[in-house]
User: Fold these one by one.
Assistant:
Number 1:
Amino acid sequence: MGRGDKKSKKGKRTAGSFGVTRNKKAIKTRLKRVASKKGTAAVAEAPAKKRTAAKKKAE
């Protein structure tokens, strides 16, 4: 736990990360990949049926 460790305060100061240790670029690319897979699956499925309100019978 020293200067090279980004999880310690001293390591954050040395790296100049201001407390951000997670790699945002890798996270964003992974999220884009998952979103694109979901998007293609949604297009392949049949469109959802529209729900209509039930009409009340006149008494």
Number 2:
Amino acid sequence: MRWIPGTAAVLLAVGALAAAPAGPASAAGVELAGRAWIDDGGADTAVQAVKKAAGGKVKNGVVDTASLTGAGIGVALIDSGVAPVAGLNQPGKVINGPDLSFESQTPGLEHLDTYGHGTHMAGIIAGSDPAGGFEGVAPGAHLISLKTAAADGAVDVTQVIAAIDWVVAHRNDPGLNIRVLNLSFGTDSVQPALVDPLSYAVEAAWKKGIVVVSSVGNDGATAPRVTMPAANPYVLAVGAADPNGTDGRADDTVATFSNRGNLTRHADLLAAGRSLVSLRVPGSYIDTQYPSARVGDRLFRGSGTSQAAAVVSGSVALLLQQRPGLTPDQVKQLLTRTADPLAGADPVAAGAGQLDIAEAATLIAPMNATQTWAASTGLGSLELSRGTNHVVDSVTGTVLAGERDIFGTPWTPLTWTLAARNGKAWTGGTWNGTVWSGQAFVGTSWPVVPWTGRTWAGRTWAGSTWAGRTWTTSGWTGRTWTSGTWAGRTWTGRTWA
């Protein structure tokens, strides 16, 4: 999915929360979805219908996939947070990892979804609201939410990489069992996946046993590339299918907004991604900007490869509940081998075809599924990984650019790649030499720590980009990350697909 942040105030009806008015538009880093939130007036598509069409039923008389719920499987969601709306508010459903967003410094907003995108994905993946009649693909799975994007859309690629590294480091923590990572976003990186640090991060997660599901982007049939990190050849790159208003698949097509890619890298498979109905966050950015997308009081409609990726993530949770011993390579091969081809579709854009989880559940696990792509080195540039999207200080117009993270800490690829490969990029709450968060769970949430003046006092961001900008106590302590600091600009190009 994609959306464009504006300048209107965001008032949350969830709890007693309120975000300050967003600042003047400024260029956000990683995009949560290239174009505006897509609500093109298509017929509502219920997740239950998508699940049924994707194989949530007995098939070939062998496996009853309808009985699979994803129970016991943890799905990590790096997005804009998850709101405690009905369907996601039961005990144990959502576990909050560290809030790495700029809103983490605003009391009352930590972990919560002021944008609306993350909750929409969470509902598709694992929502469960019997009273309201809503169910996600894997209603028995639990979600580990890592908030990186704020209500104004501002997020840098370093926040996303830090979140991926945290998932790898904590995948086996008690009660987590993270087997799936959903990434409904992308950047228009201008360097090859072989060297891109974001590509390296997801590849490291894959090789540690996590099935990484990434959307290909929403730039349409003429887009010659998929977004990063879907460009990495190991992960599951997901495009969107258009159900064309019917529950059957005979008339399904590749959605017009789904990135085509090229012969070298394109979607591995498709899943339904047009007009999917999922959980709504009243008062969130997309809720206030796109009221026509509301479906009753609790639900919201949206289209994009984000939604398609969420369908696949939930389906992978079903498959892993059935066979916990499957490796990521085996899961990918099972899904691509059993995908249903789309009649007459562009074979590049459609990949192997449309997800068929029931058929995948009946297929014997392949023994020779090991992928042998050239390994990413991760030694490329952070700046090139950002592509055309940057976070900007709305007061000064200063752009976060170059080989530095959001705290101005220099990026040392050789040091980071070794730590990330071994799942040790985090030391307690420290990443890349700076304290980003607390050190351990308190209840079901990872605690927030102040990004205070003590961290910044006397520090100057050197180099041509940051010269002359000294970060002191007055600039950081107690400041909300909205109108006063890293407010996001208009989101353009490819991002949060």
Number 3:
Amino acid sequence: MSTTSWFISIAALAWLGQILLGGWQVYQFNCAYDALHGQGHLVGLGRSGGRFTPRVVMALAFDADGYVRNGFTLRGLSVFARPRPLTRLIGLHKTQLVPSVIFAKDPASQTALALAIEPKL
């Protein structure tokens, strides 16, 4: 096997691994989202952007009165990021969710929370 063929084979295996791990991450996210959707009246989903900084995806389940029933956050730069429970917001009303106070030193989480507060129908 020549050096060029070896490099092409390694690149193809890395690409296939990325596809498989990305699919697994999407599956984990969808399972967490489905579980969250069953717990609340509305689910708000927010995402911060960034190409070379860790992205944050935040999902919050609100009951009919506007209180947070449950939530999770997915934070990371790679496909190894997994949904983690966001327990510190449970029980707070929508009006008590002030992103700049809750995540004072984390602008990415502030952006994700600000978008998740207003659930889309």
